[in-house]
Amino acid sequence: MRHNLGLINIGKQINRTEEQEYFLHIRSQLIESPYENKDIYIKNFESLMQTKLEGFQLDKAYFTKIKKYFEEQRLLRLNKFDEQKKQQK
Protein backbone atom coordinates (compact mmCIF):
# COMPACT_ATOMS: atom_id res chain seq x y z
CA MET A 1 0.00 0.00 0.00
CA ARG A 2 1.58 3.29 -1.10
CA HIS A 3 1.37 6.07 1.41
CA ASN A 4 3.40 8.69 -0.51
CA LEU A 5 4.63 10.28 2.70
CA GLY A 6 8.00 11.90 2.52
CA LEU A 7 10.74 10.26 4.52
CA ILE A 8 12.92 12.82 6.20
CA ASN A 9 16.54 11.73 5.76
CA ILE A 10 19.58 13.91 6.42
CA GLY A 11 17.27 16.89 6.90
CA LYS A 12 15.55 16.69 3.51
CA GLN A 13 12.40 15.02 2.26
CA ILE A 14 12.95 12.12 -0.12
CA ASN A 15 10.47 10.67 -2.60
CA ARG A 16 10.63 6.90 -2.97
CA THR A 17 9.67 3.99 -5.16
CA GLU A 18 7.01 1.53 -4.10
CA GLU A 19 9.69 -1.00 -3.13
CA GLN A 20 11.50 1.55 -0.96
CA GLU A 21 8.21 2.48 0.72
CA TYR A 22 7.59 -1.17 1.52
CA PHE A 23 10.85 -1.45 3.48
CA LEU A 24 10.33 1.90 5.19
CA HIS A 25 6.83 0.79 6.22
CA ILE A 26 8.28 -2.32 7.85
CA ARG A 27 10.83 -0.22 9.73
CA SER A 28 8.18 2.25 10.89
CA GLN A 29 6.09 -0.59 12.32
CA LEU A 30 9.00 -1.70 14.50
CA ILE A 31 9.32 1.66 16.24
CA GLU A 32 8.81 1.17 19.99
CA SER A 33 9.19 -2.60 19.60
CA PRO A 34 11.97 -4.74 21.10
CA TYR A 35 13.61 -4.90 17.65
CA GLU A 36 13.98 -1.16 17.15
CA ASN A 37 17.33 -0.89 18.96
CA LYS A 38 18.84 -4.33 18.30
CA ASP A 39 22.25 -3.88 16.71
CA ILE A 40 21.91 -6.74 14.21
CA TYR A 41 18.53 -5.45 13.01
CA ILE A 42 19.83 -1.91 12.66
CA LYS A 43 22.93 -3.07 10.76
CA ASN A 44 20.95 -5.33 8.40
CA PHE A 45 18.24 -2.75 7.72
CA GLU A 46 20.70 0.05 7.06
CA SER A 47 22.74 -2.18 4.73
CA LEU A 48 19.61 -3.15 2.82
CA MET A 49 18.37 0.44 2.53
CA GLN A 50 21.74 1.67 1.31
CA THR A 51 21.33 -0.67 -1.68
CA LYS A 52 17.77 0.58 -2.25
CA LEU A 53 18.11 4.30 -1.48
CA GLU A 54 21.39 6.06 -2.22
CA GLY A 55 22.78 8.00 0.72
CA PHE A 56 20.37 6.47 3.24
CA GLN A 57 21.44 6.84 6.88
CA LEU A 58 19.20 5.22 9.47
CA ASP A 59 20.38 7.45 12.29
CA LYS A 60 19.38 10.49 10.22
CA ALA A 61 15.99 9.17 9.08
CA TYR A 62 12.71 10.10 10.75
CA PHE A 63 9.85 7.64 10.41
CA THR A 64 7.28 9.48 12.51
CA LYS A 65 5.02 10.53 9.60
CA ILE A 66 4.94 6.99 8.24
CA LYS A 67 4.32 5.47 11.69
CA LYS A 68 1.54 7.97 12.43
CA TYR A 69 -0.13 7.35 9.05
CA PHE A 70 -0.28 3.57 9.51
CA GLU A 71 -1.51 3.93 13.09
CA GLU A 72 -4.33 6.20 11.86
CA GLN A 73 -5.20 3.67 9.14
CA ARG A 74 -5.28 0.86 11.72
CA LEU A 75 -7.65 2.86 13.95
CA LEU A 76 -9.93 3.62 11.00
CA ARG A 77 -10.13 -0.10 10.17
CA LEU A 78 -10.90 -0.96 13.79
CA ASN A 79 -13.63 1.68 14.00
CA LYS A 80 -15.14 0.48 10.73
CA PHE A 81 -15.13 -3.11 12.02
CA ASP A 82 -16.76 -2.03 15.31
CA GLU A 83 -19.48 -0.15 13.42
CA GLN A 84 -20.19 -3.18 11.24
CA LYS A 85 -20.45 -5.38 14.33
CA LYS A 86 -22.95 -2.98 15.93
CA GLN A 87 -25.09 -2.94 12.79
CA GLN A 88 -25.25 -6.73 12.74
CA LYS A 89 -26.73 -6.89 16.25
Note the run of SSEs as H and E: EEHHEH
CATH topology: Arc Repressor Mutant, subunit A
Structural class: mainly alpha
Q: Averaged pLDDT, please?
A: 80
CATH class: Mainly Alpha
Shape: elongated
Q: Which second-level CATH architecture applies?
A: Orthogonal Bundle
Instruction: Round the Cα radius of gyration to an integer and report it.
Output: 16 Å
Strand arrangement across the biggest beta sheet: 2-1-3
Q: Major sheet, described briefly?
A: 3 strands, antiparallel
- Whole-number tally of structural domains: 1
Number of helices: 3
Protein name: DNA topoisomerase I DNA binding eukaryotic-type domain-containing protein
GO molecular function: DNA binding; DNA topoisomerase type I (single strand cut, ATP-independent) activity
Task: Briefly summarize what is shown.
With 89 residues, the chain is mainly alpha-helical. It has 3 helices and 3 strands, in the order E-E-H-H-E-H. Strands 2-1-3 form a 3-stranded antiparallel β-sheet.
Task: List the SSEs and their pairings.
Blueprint: E1 7-9, E2 12-14, H1 18-29, H2 39-52, E3 61-62, H3 64-88
Helix pairs in contact: 1-3
Plain-language structure description:
- The chain has 89 residues and is mostly helical.
- It has one domain: Yeast DNA topoisomerase - domain 1 (Arc Repressor Mutant, subunit A, Orthogonal Bundle).
- It is built from 3 helices and 3 strands.
- The protein has a 3-stranded antiparallel beta sheet.
- A hairpin with a 2-residue loop joins strand 1 and strand 2.
- Helix 1 packs across helix 3.
- The chain is elongated and about 55 Å long.
- The termini are far apart.
